[in-house]
Every structure is written in structure tokens, then in C-alpha cells.
Amino acid sequence: MTFLVTGATGTVGRQVVAELLRRGERVRALTRDPAKADLPAGVETVRGDLTDPRTLVPALEGVTGLHLITFGGAYFAPLTTGGEIVALAAKAGVRRVTVLDGGGPTPLQHAVEAGDVDWTLVMPVEFMANALEWAEGIRAGDEVAEPFVDRVSAMVHEADIGAVAAVALTEDGHAGRTYLITGPETLTVRDKVRTLAAARGREIGLTELSAAQAAERWRQAGTDPEAVAFLLDVYGNTPPEGRTVVDTVERVTGRPARTFAQWAAEHADAFRARG
To answer: Pfam families this protein is in (predicted)?
Structure first.
């Protein structure tokens, strides 16, 4: 069987590819620029674009399982081509589809749910990889500056997201399921900073920004006003789903979810000064 992974060069897509390879599956990766994909040996990399479903026809040949993302284009806009993608997948003989939730219902998600293939919705909370946004400031000045430092998150290791998706694609019993995926613990910003400091072997300072200071920083970085408002809301009022641990990873994969300490150890070099 062949599995096609879209968004294969993204944070989660790479993990879906890696987990399918680990399970001994044949993997095909869709990307707009195969020359820059930098995927593991053994992966068949093909050119395609979800915003132009015609490019998917050769990529879907012989595919039985398909991992989809719900956005495309330069600005990660929700895909409006879901109906065409689902029709092409069904015509090609795809039997199972996983959809990475992008933060709420999308046209593609609706099309998949209304289609004739078995689907599983993969709904992760905050990625542990988001901590990499702090790497430059930590390397340069041993410092993190964030608002709402006591907010809690049940952040999830991106490899666990890939593992859940791979199981849903390759095993029976997951059709029609929506899997909320979290890590094994809730952490504050303070907890995360302490964990990163321990992993890299050097203390990291933490400065709490006011909401106004954070908004101004984001605006200066080019963040549009709508996104700034969203960030302030989600950081200041994290929804229950984002701060409540669930056992999805263990139930689906048969092993405990990875901890942030494990993620920090794996990425410690990203937080150490260079040179």
C-alpha cells in the first residue's frame, strides 16, 4: 500500500512521514518544491499543490491512505478545493483519510466528512515545537519575554501527532473519529522555561510582558490586527481543550505521550549559543 502525505515538509507532516516509514509503509510526499523537501531516504517526493487539485492526479495513483492539511497557498488560507480533492481521492481508490485540524471547521474538513472515504480528524493542541520561537532570544540573551506567563497548556510533541495519524491511516477502528491530542501534563510558561534551561544546561530569564506590550511587539513583527487579537484571547483565555490532558496518544498508539522534557532534550542545541 502507498500513503500520500500532504504538507509533508511541515512540522506535523514530517512526523507523519517518519512514523509511516517506521511502520514499514511505502510513503509518497506531496510538496510544491521537491528539490527543497529534504525528506528521509525511501520517501517518494512528488510535486503538487492542494490549491490546484489537477496536480494531485498523478500523486494519487495507487494511493490507499491520504493525510491532508486544510490550508494552502502563501498565507495558509483555508482550502476551498476540498470537494475536488475528495472526489479525486475516491476515484483513485483511497480508502482512508486523516485530516489535520487547523483550528476549526474548514471547507475541506466538511468535504471529507461528506465524502465516501473513511476519515479521521486529528486535532492537536499547542505544539511543543512552538517553543522554538524563543530560541533566538534565548541564544542571544538567555531570556524569554512573554505575556500571561502563568497560563497553562497541555502541549503535545509533534511526533505524537504523527504517530496518531499513522495509526489511523494503517489500522482499522478509527473511521469517523475525532482525536483531540495533548501531551501528558499541563505546563505554564514558567515550567517550559525551567525545562528548557535544564535541557541546555544554562539558566534562562523570564520577563512577563503586559498584554499591551505583547500586542505592540507582535504588531512590530508584522502580525496583522486580527491575529494579534486572536493571540491575546487564546493566551489570556486558553480554552479547556488546550489545557486539559487527555489520553488519546496512549489509547491510540499503545504508549504514553512524550513529555516536554523529552522534547527539550531532543532540541537542546537550538537553545544554546553558537560559535
So the answer is: NAD_binding_10
